[in-house]
Amino acid sequence: IHTSTSLQKFGKWEKKNRIVYPPQLPGEPRRPAEIYHCRREIKYSKDKMWYLAKLIKGMSIDQALAQLEFNDKKGAKVIKEVLLEAQEMAVRNHNVEFKSNLHIAESVTGRGRYVKRIRYHGKGMFGIMKIVRCHYFVKLVEGPPPPPEPPRTGFDQAKEYVQQLRSRTLVNTL
Amino acid sequence: LPVRTKKRFSVPEWARELTPEQKEKRLKSLGTIFPEEHVERNFYLACTADIMDPYVPPEGDARLSSLSKDGLKQKMEKLRQTATSQLALRKVKDHVPDFSTKTFPEKAQEIFIEAHNSLANFNKQKLHSLVTERCYPEMVRGNRYKTIRWSFVESLEPPRVVHVRCDSVVNRGNLYGQVTVRMHTRQTLAIYDRFGRLMYGGEQVPKDVLEYVVFERYLVNPYGTWRMHGKIVPEWAPPKDPVIKTVMIPGPTLDPSQEYEEMK
């Protein structure tokens, strides 16, 4: 007799936490742990949330938490809770040794379910307003954050141009 | 005081409050009502909830070498220790005529090895048939996203039946038999986490293990089988190896005015 049902429908991001890799041989380099976490249907705009997600993207988790704590936006509080939850999950369930040894590899926002409502104006006019919700996805990877890419200088561009010129070949000839 | 006004409305005949006798008469005339009997979900107890009268292993078991007199005495201890064990053994033999304390330990060891192999392969159906429902969650808790590699190297001493108990649960004739087998074996265990990193133990590191494993069988059921029920861990057992990673234990919560060194 079926007495209980599942609580929520699992999306693709939640299922990414379930893959199991085969055991590593002793000679291989240690595989860094990856933890996926998300929060669905946050009452905030996805475009406004994107700014915060882009802010956090390459940082270590301590730096990200510090930046979000002193940010004035509404989404900052939500993202901070999500990061703390993910850190807790990592240490408890996914065998991560040091909780500050994590960095944020991907942080992405997505559109949630929109609901349309009537917004009443004067003189009997109305507009249709959308109640906007978003999802927020985070992927934490064990290890120090990767060094930022050096910006492209004029010298790099010149080198690439010369390389392009050198790699030209003659076409349709002997 | 009721207000004397013109009677605007009147309560109809059928809505008026009846006296208790009139009510009873009315109920009887309608006919007797039988309360609806809910068909309850019945359950079947296939195993007991705990080890009855757990065996207390003697101190320093398997520490003394077999060349000294004490060691030999320990080895030659037979099952004729307690009267309750003998009684229980007789009851078990009533229901299961094939049972014998000399052949059972081998079968028990086979069941033990099979159960651990199916745990390593995550073969749930086989594990359920080899291990009771009480022992299954203990074995399987927390293993879902991990790989376990277990292998049995050899048995250092032949296994021995050490303790027999027979008891009934809920009703009087509902007999379950529990037999404790003492096993001294060499095993290797390695647990890898979700990403394939070693969490505990080593593949090539054999460890000597002295265990008291309890097997249980539902005696009244003619098709019952002996299944692993649990293990008895004595108090003097050596502590297990620590896990490979470092774990943080949170300290006491401090006020902003206090220092940790002062608290200590």
Which structural traits does this protein have?
heterodimer; A: 174 residues; alpha+beta; two-stranded antiparallel ribbon; 33% helix; extended; B: 264 residues; five-stranded antiparallel beta sheet; 7 helices; 5 strands
State the major sheet of chain A: 3 strands, antiparallel
Q: How far is the N terminus from the C terminus of chain B? A: 77 Å
> Biggest interface, which chains?
A-B, 19 and 17 residues
What's the assembly state of these chains? heterodimer
Strand content of chain A: 15-25%
Count of individual helical segments of chain B: 7
Mean pLDDT of chain A: 92
What share of residues of chain B is helical? 25-40%
Strand order across the largest sheet of chain A? 1-5-2
Instruction: Return the string of H and E elements of chain B.
Output: HHHHHHEEEEEH
Give the proportion of residues in helices of chain A: 25-40%
Terminal CA distance of chain A reads: 79 Å
Number of strands of chain A: 5
Overall pLDDT of chain B? 84
Low-confidence stretches of chain A: none
Radius of gyration of chain B: 32 Å
Note the main sheet of chain B: 5 strands, antiparallel
- Which spans of chain B of ≥5 residues are poorly predicted at pLDDT below 50? none
Which structural category fits the helices and strands of chain B? alpha+beta
Protein name (chain A): Large ribosomal subunit protein uL22m
Pfam families (chain A): Ribosomal_L22 (PF00237)
GO molecular function, one term (chain A): structural constituent of ribosome
Subcellular location (chain A): Mitochondrion
